[in-house]
């Protein structure tokens, strides 16, 4: 039975957490600005210690290559379960050496091998199956319930990627080890009960820290993956030239210069003198640095 209820702010997280405890999947719907992303962040912080929360946003999925999506999502999964990240970036030899160091089942290791060996020759069905299957398998291995929090899920419908939709439905929606909490502007078939958020902004109900988190996260999500890497390098390492940034993130100076020009047009950086760029918002710079220290 679908619960179509418009909730007050006080009841939102309470009802979602209750649904998670009852092993339900849930779809949070609402228009832009109603606080769906903020609510997912809040829920993750409130999860019991015997649960693992994995938060991933589909908002930029249409701007990512398939390989970038696999890498980012795999990192979110493995970091969430406390086994580090960058598994997909390892060579075969390094991967096998690192796999021997962690205590997970052979089934989970095999899924990591599939993801690390991502190539255009592999079928999407196999790749996506390994990706979502890894969540279910690690939850079983660790004997912890996983709460998969997916933001802006309607993007996968817009991409018309049937393999991605099928993998999510087959591996997650029916899993006994995973609860699915998704946000979208409309009801999604992959989720369960519906919580309808009020169509009004959250700003007057947030603390200053929560407000900054929300505003800066929305600001960060306006950038592509490569632009975020460049901005992070500038914030964390005080790198202001294409040459400095290139040494940190291993992109060509020509590409970085092109991205910096785009970011200047978006209002994130300013060219102060020849070859020297600075971030426009010092508070945003501090927020990025602090966020990556967590």
Which key phrases capture this entry?
294 residues; alpha/beta; Arc Repressor Mutant, subunit A; 2 domains; globular
What is the topology?
Elements: E1 5-7, H1 9-21, E2 26-29, H2 36-46, E3 51-57, H3 66-80, H4 92-99, H5 106-116, H6 124-142, E4 145-151, H7 154-159, H8 162-173, E5 178-184, E6 193-197, H9 208-220, H10 225-237, H11 242-249, H12 253-266, E7 269-273, E8 276-279, H13 282-293
Parallel strand pairs: 1-6, 2-5, 2-6, 3-4, 4-5
Antiparallel strand pairs: 7-8
Describe this structure in words.
This protein is α/β, with parallel strands linked by helices. It has two domains: 5-201, Rossmann fold (3-Layer(aba) Sandwich), CATH 3.40.50.300; 223-293, Winged helix-like DNA-binding domain superfamily/Winged helix DNA-binding domain (Arc Repressor Mutant, subunit A). 53% of the residues lie in helices and 14% in strands. The chain is built from 13 helices and eight strands. It has helices spanning 9-21, 36-46, 66-80, 92-99, 106-116, 124-142, 154-159, 162-173, 208-220, 225-237, 242-249, 253-266, 282-293, and strands at residues 5-7, 26-29, 51-57, 145-151, 178-184, 193-197, 269-273, 276-279. Strands 1-6-2-5-4-3 form a six-stranded parallel sheet, sandwiched between helices. A two-stranded antiparallel sheet has the order 7-8. Strand 7 (269-273) and strand 8 form a beta hairpin. Helix 10 (225-237) crosses helix 13 (282-293) and helix 11 packs across helix 12 (253-266). The model is unreliable at 1-5 and 201-206 (pLDDT under 50).
